[in-house]
Structure formats: structure tokens, C-alpha cells
What does this fold into?
Amino acid sequence: MTQPAALCPSCGAPILFHWSSSVQTTCAHCKSILIRTDVNLERVGVVSDLPPDSSPVQIGTSGVYENRAFTVAGRIIYDYDEGSWNEWHIVLNTASSAVGSAWLSDAQSQYAVTLAFQAEPLPALAAVHLGDRFTWNKVAFVVTVITQARYRGVEGELPFEYWDKQGAAFVDLRSTDGGFATLDYSDAVPVLYLGKMVDFDALRLKNLRAFEGWS
It folds into this structure.
């Protein structure tokens, strides 16, 4: 679904959106952060140098989740006490068109795929503690990790505006049947994501980054 958009207002490079619902992208040439409006592109910032990344996933990596093909369109990078992790924005596809987006969380060689889920009311961060139990979509979850993270940058296409951030808090939850949930407190209004942990091989990933020594 490659769609020509405009020229980068900073350096004049051509900008293509590969997903029709993308709101934000980054210019590969000058690292400007660009927001798509009704008529043009607006430059809202610039991406600083991204932290070193050992993930084999990259923009353009493709794979399969629950029999649905996907392509990695963008990412958000965070730091936390144990290092850094990526939230890869993936576009889910059918044989004919893109039909939605999800997130592939990639931290310390552990992977989870989640989709935004509408649930109200969501608890305030101060009211959440390790071991607390919540039920969403008829599945019971237990709080296992509360992470205070620092935003480090963005890359590629995102389905919403996300830039010029500072700290962010996330609550991870697990269910007894392998389900995974995240409460995202990076904005004023929390967002719930539901999905599951996944094995790297089960994602059937292609177009991965090549590292020296890989066969």
C-alpha cells in the first residue's frame, strides 16, 4: 500500500507512506519527524542518534502472527534499568490489503504481540501494584512487572503522533493461559494492549538484520 505523500519539508527528499493510516514518519535522509496533515507534511522535530540495538528485527521485516502476515512499519525505543527495548509497529495484512496494526514488543530476546483494546475504566498508575488482578476480554490477568522507562526515539511509520516524550510507565500482566497485557501510561490517558507472548521462530520472520557471525 505504498502511497506517495510529499517531499520532506526539511531536506526535500521524497516521503512515501507504506500504510494508509500512518500519521507520523521519519525522513530517512535528515531524520526529521514528520506529521501527515490533510494537505502536507509538517516537521515537528528531529530524531537524535538512536541507542545501539542488537535486535534482528528492522523496518521492513515481515512475519506471521496467528495466520496473518505482517510487516514492520516503525518503532518506538525505550530505555529502562535492564537496557532498552523496542515497540515495533506492525501492519497486519490479508492477501489483498492492510487491515490493521499491532505492536511487537522486543526486549531481552523476549517477544509479545499486542493490539489496542477498548476497556473502561482503566486504573490510575498509582492504584496498580504487583500481584493485582484484572479481567479484560473475559481473561484474568495478574500484574507481574511495573516499568519506569525513558523514551529514546522513533523510527519509521506510526499510527499516531509520538515524539518529544520524556519518561513513560508501563504495567505488564500475564494470564495463566499465556496471555499478555500492557497498560501504557506514556500519555495522560492510559491505553490497554492485549495479546500474547510469542516464540521468535513462530513469527517466521524474514528480512532480518544480518549480524557478523550469523549463518
Notes: The two ends are 32 Å apart (CA to CA). The chain is about 0% helix and 55% strand. The first strand starts at residue 3 and ends at 7.
